[in-house]
Amino acid sequence: MKAAVLPEVGSPLRVEDLRDPRPKAGEVLVRVRACGVCHTDLHVMKGEVKFPVPCVLGHEISGVVEEVGADVDGLRVGDRVACAFIMPCGSCFYCVRGEEDLCERFFEYNRLRGTLYDGQTRLFRPDGTPVWMYSMGGLAEYAVVPTTDVFLVPDSLPLEQAAVLGCAVFTAFGAIRNAARLQPGESVAVFATGGVGSALVELARAFGAYPVVAVDVRPEKLEAAKQLGASHVVNALETRPQDAVREITRGRGVDVAFEALGRPETFVQAVESVRDGGRAVMVGIAPVGVTAPVEITRVVRRKIQILGSYGARTRTDMPLVLDLARRGAVRLDRLVTRQFSLSQADEAYRLLDAGGIVGRAVVVV
Questions:
Q1: Could you tell me the fold of the domain covering 2-167+312-364?
Q2: Given this model, what pLDDT does residue 188 score?
Q3: Are 242 and 272 in contact (CB under 8 A)?
Q4: What pTM did the predictor assign?
């Protein structure tokens, strides 16, 4: 099969021929239709997050079931499916508690070693050299995915767009429902309206939030945020955004601020934009070791909650995300704004790195 391989940190993605992967017990082979283009992959490409190379990136996919391994129930060849970036093992301390966003084996085996849960990759070059997997390694013609992370896609949803449900929308859903526990009528600010930020805006609208304030530095992204449901927009190059958010909310601040970029300045802006007793939910991934200066006294005296949110709970939340898309509460045609071929994968990530993609791009395989 063909796959976009990262040969080494800092190098371009290169399309290579790899051996066709095969699923083992409890796994599914998916013929990939589309894979989302996400900033988290960029951190690996640039060496900001440590990960073994050579590897295949891409961690939110849609496609069709090509083969099922032993002990797989409820899925058959030809099923239209989508897969989230967190592939729960289903048996660790956190998975049995329903906290699959903290799955121990996912972090230990996949995020640290680039393997599935038997400690082995499913990807190899023709000479037998192992190629490591970032999640399922979705920038390829085929991907092996644990059955805990394979979900049927309604016929009404285009597979080319459904890929983004597995990270952009999945991550936003987890932040809104599990971390923030957002209630109808609460006020929201979203700092950075890229792929995840755009989904946060749309879901905040769907959950009944008002006002929904989108903060970014690019006018085209702010205009897109309006189309997704932002009631107000703030250009952070033109004003101090936390002050603008407070002005919109009559000086009080929002109930919930979401940070979706992973930079110290937006981290601080999000914390400073919430009301007394408000919640600041941090979603953006930063390079390892990056910190942000937050005023301790205000956090303590004004009961500010700073919450981390990493994805969502795959087995309980992905069906809900798919249903939201089926009912039109998540409008995939507005979230997915660009399509690239597998041979253009490196171009897609370079454009993403330059801030040149509004919303979410996908690689169509």
A1: Quinone Oxidoreductase; Chain A, domain 1 (3.90.180)
A2: 98
A3: yes
A4: 0.96
